Amino acid sequence: MKGWLKISAVLLLVYVHTAGLLMDVPRLNILNETVRALYFHVPMWFGMVLLYLMSVYYAIRYLKNPSHEFDVKSVAYAHVGTAFGILGMITGMLWANYTWGSPWHGDPKQNGAAIALLVYLAYFVLRGSLDNEEQRARLSGVYNIFAFAAMIPLIFIIPRLTSSMHPGSGGNPGFNAYDLDSRMRLVFYPAVIAWFLIGLWIVSLRVRIKKLEEKIIDNE
Amino acid sequence: MKDIIIRITGLVLLLVTNVGLAQSEVEMADTMRSEGKIYVIVAIVLIVLAGLMVYLFMLDRKVKNLENRLK
Fold this sequence. Notes:
The complex is a heterodimer.
Chain A: H1 3-22, H2 38-64, H3 68-99, H4 108-128, H5 133-161, H6 182-219
Chain B: H1 2-24, H2 30-35, H3 38-70
């Protein structure tokens, strides 16, 4: 990953955390000041979906052309994506506790996200249970496609078909319910970009460390 | 007659004040902002962020050193 990308990610995060706390937000009942959680909670999920997308991309590339490098990348993206998802889950529960009344509300999107995370945790269980390297890479590549295909409806489609308290659900697509006006977009989109870049950075570190490990094993 | 007028004005007043209340303020942390204490939070959040980012940069450098050594 290029150095200027890392620095711009950090600068964007500094901007997001300053503007996210200081800039004006719509004055809404119940949400009150917590509407600002949008700047910090939602980018975790956007980051997770983008990282999982990269993961499934490398899984497909591995299945088309079984190169060890693609497998290493695929698992690194899935790993960091899951970390983002767990952070999104914890922040969402905290937010829900104060706006919906309880941390776990049985909200379709919340349930769907939890199931999606479990599906991805099973991906790591699958990888851990196979010793043969090629078999592990191939099977987990196939499973990765299944996991991604399960996550999309769980998070984006089912909550729209029923009623969900998340905005953009229950026949109300988009961010209308939040009044995500241009002011909030000015902070929200940079937050998504910045956290995604940080995710890519951590992925690149994991991939490089993995390569070093393999080099050491080869040398021994 | 007087009675009705009093009642109607009462009702109107009630409505006006209610509308006023509904519009006037959704409760936000305005006091904290006006006292400037919000900057304390901004500073704390930025310190945590800076610490984590410096940590990431150092980790990056450590990996780079290892890569150079193993070349």
